[in-house]
Structures are given as structure tokens and as C-alpha cells.
Amino acid sequence: MHNSNFSRSLQSALIVVLMAAIWVLFAPAQFGGGASYVIIAGASMEPTMHQGDLVIVRPASTYEIGEVVTYRHPRVGPVIHRIIDREGPRYTMQGDNNDWIDSYEPVNTEILGKSWLHVPGAAEKLLWLRTPAGLGLLSLSIGIMFLITITKKGERKKGHSKKDADMLSKWLQQTQSLKLGEWVFPLGIVLFASILLGFFAFTRPEFQAIPADIPYSHQGSFSYQAVGSPSVYAQGEVESGQAIFHALVHDLELNFFYEFQTEAPTDLLGTYSVLLRISEQSGWQRTIELQPETYFEGTSFTTSTALDLQQITTIVERVKTRTGLKRQNFNVEIDVPAQIVGTIAGLDFKETFTATLPFQLDEIELYVNRQDPLGENGDPFMPATSAFLPNEQTIPNTLNILGVNLTVSKARQVALIAGGVSLALIALIMTPALAVSLRSESERIKLVHAERLLDVNEIPFDGDLEWIDVASIDDLVKLSESTGGLILHDRDGSRHTYVVKDGDTGYRFTLEDPNGLDAPTDDADPVNPEGGRWEP
Question: Is 447:434 a contact under the CB 8 Å cutoff?
């Protein structure tokens, strides 16, 4: 049955679908595919990967810690390393054989893909094909395959005259045999493509979780003011940023404004306090509570605290007197620790933010220390920090088919509908023919060997041929394949004759089949008494 249009059509459809699947899986990104080919050119990933290995990477919607990915460095180019951490949209990378962490932290859009297929040593072979010797061998192999194909086609045509070819072509156009392959071939392609699409669609989850971290920030703002001598301070007022001469100024009003910023909906509350910390380089320090723990609701609060400068200088002088310290400078810091709890976008949140305004105190003045190494933005009056709240977002999973993104849900629907319709149509086409072929041998022969069968009104050969009767239609098919000729079919009532001509010899198989569709009935047709197919 391997000679039938049906089986060959299915084989052809399978080959087409498999080639399409190979293209989908392995087509390079430069040609619209989803694969990138990376050649290992160093020892940073040993012992996992070695120089000369080939790694095929495919893009993903999200990447997890521990996965080996390739990212595009703005100066170095493609780099293949392992993800060791992630904070917000940026990934922290490191080679398995490196003691250091990559200085560049790529974002999702800079990652070409994660390792999908690792082929040790394959890169050397691919690079060899690019050499003159490799290109020559590849060209020679393609040429030999082409010549073999042409030669086989020529052998199949050998022994047929142009006259015979014209006659057979004319008879072929007049044939009424079943040509199921013309319908089954495209339906078979659709069926196999649906099966392949269904395999990918049903082996992947319909939805996937991707990072959707929520950015937020703590913003603070310090200011102070005091009444001073008009001879030293303009209009007798000390403003933020000015040095405070503690011989002239005794009290300082310290103000602080805090705001929690995020675009996500929040339900927050918290507590804060104001602390004074005096310290010196050897490690001594003393903390004084200026404002006890206070509750607030929402995302912001404002506080104002009085700072007694005489109290600060008295404490410092007492320490110097009792300890014998000869130090001239002391650190004076105003700390505002705030603890925030609640929810952000429905997620539990709890964090502590401490804003610090650093001063330096000497025997004459108290001034702001603008060289605070902890000041992230360089302005001690505007302390701020930003971070991300880990979060995931569930989105539909997608399949990339020849550059077209299709959701898994839609792909499943397409696979089921297309596969079901094509299978139903194939069954609709094949079932009647198969049913008839089961009860009639002549109809079975017509179905199985339709591509080699040619119906004629009479055998167009002279009686001078040497006739040889064969035992089965399969023997005649073998002769037809070896000679390249068609099997001529002549029906006379329920008697079927099948003939293959080879030179001066005619090979014949005769079949008596009363169950054929064209077999005569018991009641003779008065208009067509000899039976057969009646044409009105």
C-alpha cells in the first residue's frame, strides 16, 4: 500500500511539517526565527561550558535565577553567563569560573535568550565549514546529491519513446481513477501541522508569571531655622545650610517632611521618632530622644523639633573634662527613623527608613557635614532611597511561530479546530472509498494503485505480443515500477484485465469481480444490454 497516493501524500505532508518545525525551532533570529547561536570563546563558564562549544539560546518572557543566558553588553557584545540575582528590572550576572560579578547588569530586553541546546565542540566544526576546504566539500556534496536526483529521474524515463509518453499522457488525462492524494495531501499538511502546533501548545502552560516589581521610594526633606544676632545673620535669622555659632544661638527649630512615593495603590501607616546622636571617632556616642515614637497614617508626615544647642555643648564639654579627650570636633546627627507597614497593590509591605542630617560640632560652630558618604544624592537636606517590591504578573503564554506571536490559548483552539476539521474531511473522503474497497477487489486496486492505473476502453496493443499471465496485481505493480510504465485497466462486465507492456511482451493479470461498482446487475439494461456504466 506504499504505492498509493494516500500514503505518499501523507509522507509528503509529514516531511513538509517536519521541515517547518525544524525551521521554527532552529531558524536564526536574523532570518525571522527565534534561535541565536553562541560560540563559547573563553573559560568563564567552565566546567559547564568550554571554549569551542556551541550553545543555542531562545528568548523567554522572563528569566530565573540560576539560568544561563546570553545578553548583549553595550561595549563587549554578546556575553553568556549565569543569573545569580535580580533586583527590579536588572539581572546580576556572573561566569561559573569567575570570582567577580559582571559590572554590567542587563535588563530583560538586552537578553538574547536562555540556553536551550548545548553541543560540546560543535563550534569548531561549524567554523571549519567556513574555510575554503569546508566550503568546497559542502558544495561537492550538494552537487553529488543533485546529480543523483537527476540521474534517478532519467533512469525512470529511460526506455519510453516520445510517442509512448504522449499516448500515456493523453490516456492519463482521460483516467477516472480515484485521485485521493490531490485532496489528502493539503489536508494531511494541515493535520500534521495541527498536531505539531497542539504538541507545543498543550505542553506549555496557558499562563505564565513574569516579574512586575513595584518601584517605590522614600523621600525626606530637612530644614532648620533659628533667631540669631542681626550683626552676624541677615535680618537676625539663621537659615538652612548656614553655620550655627552656638555662642550666639541657643535654640534651633528643626523641621522634617517625609513622603512615601509609588504609582501603585497603597494602604499604609507607621511610626516615627526624632533622635539626637552625639559621637566621636574613637566610637563613643550618646543618643537623646528629641521626639518620642509617633503614629501617622497615609504616605507622609511632617514634624518640627526644638534642638537645645547649650545641652549639646554641655554634654561634649563634660565628656572632654572627665575623659581627658583633646578632640576638637564631634559628630552631631539628627536621625528620623520611620517604620512603614501596610499594603501596596494588595501586597504586604513593611520597611524602615531612616533619614539623617549630619552636623560637625567644634568649639565655635555647628555646621552641616556636606561630605556625608551615606548621602546617595549628595544633598544631606534631601535624603532618599528607592527600591522595588517583588511582584509577579500573570500574562498569557505565547508561542513564536515564524516570527508571529500566538497565545497558547489561541494556539490550542487553532490546533483543535484545524486538526478536527482536516481529520473529518480526510475521513469523509476516505471512508466511502475504503468501504467499497473492502467488499470489492477491483475497487481496492483502484484505490491503492491509482497513481499507476490507467482506465482504457480496450487494450491498444497488437495481438503479436507474447502474453504472460501474472499471479497477482502486486506482481504487475512491481513490473510497472521497474519499467516505469502505467498499468492499463480494461473492464468487460465483471471481468477486469490489467496489463503492463514491456517491449514485445505483455504482462497480464485478470480478475473476476462481481462486487465492483461498475459490475452489471441481474436486470439487464434494455438500452445498454451489455452492461457496464450507462450514460444517459
Answer: yes
Q: What is the DSSP string of 340-372?
A: EEEEETTEEEEEEEEEEEEEEE-SSEEEE-TT-
- CA dist., res. 483 & res. 505, Å (int): 12
C-alpha 27/C-alpha 323 separation (Å) is 78
User: According to DSSP H, which parts of 130-285 are helical?
Assistant: 132-157, 162-174, 181-202
Q: DSSP class of residue 206?
A: S
DSSP per-residue letters across 446-510: HHHTGGGEEE-SS--S-TTSEEEE-S-HHHHHHHHHHH---EEEEEETTEEEEEEEETTEEEEEE
Whole-number Å distance between alpha carbons of 383 and 221: 7
Phi, psi of 70 (to 5 degrees): -110, 125
How far, CA to CA in Å, does 157 sit from each of 152, 161, 243, 404, 454? 9, 9, 106, 44, 18
Do the two domains 35-120 and 214-389 of this chain adopt the same fold?
A: no
Which residues of the chain fall below pLDDT 50?
A: 1-4, 149-178, 373-377, 520-536
Q: CB count, 10 Å around CB of 360?
A: 16
CATH says 35-120 is which class? mainly beta
Cβ pair 465, 501 in contact under 8 A = yes
Cell of 122: 560543535
Query: For the CA atoms of 45, 49, 50, 55, what is the dihedral angle to 10 degrees?
Result: -110
Burial class (CB within 10 angstroms; exposed 0-12, middle 13-18, buried 19+) of 473:
buried
Three-state secondary-structure class, residue 271? strand
First to last CA, the chain: 36
For residues 155 and 105, give the distance between their C-alpha atoms in angstroms, rounded to a whole number.
Answer: 63
Neighbour-count burial of 29, counting CB atoms closer than 10 A to its CB (0-12 exposed, 13-18 middle, 19+ buried): middle
Q: Which of 517, 520, 484, 522 is nearest to 503 (CA)?
A: 484
| Radius of gyration, alpha carbons of the chain | 44
Residue of 88, 97, 48, 54 whose CA lies nearest to 68: 48
Distance CA 451, CA 454 (A): 8
Q: Assess contact for 509 and 498: CB atoms under 8 A.
A: yes
pTM here? Answer: 0.56
- Contact criterion met (CB below 8 Å) for 454 and 488: yes
Q: How many CB atoms lie within 10 A of CB 111?
A: 21
Q: How many CB atoms lie within 10 A of CB 287?
A: 11
The ranges assigned to domains in the chain are 1-26+159-210+393-439, 35-120, 214-389, 451-536
Q: Tell me: the pLDDT tens digits for 487-506?
A: 888 888 888 899 988 888 88
Burial (CB count within 10 angstroms: exposed 0-12, middle 13-18, buried 19+), residue 363: exposed
214-389 in CATH: which number?
2.60.40
Question: Rounded CA gap, 212 and 394, in Å?
Answer: 9
Q: What is the pLDDT of residues 462-475, one digit of tens each?
A: 667 888 898 888 88
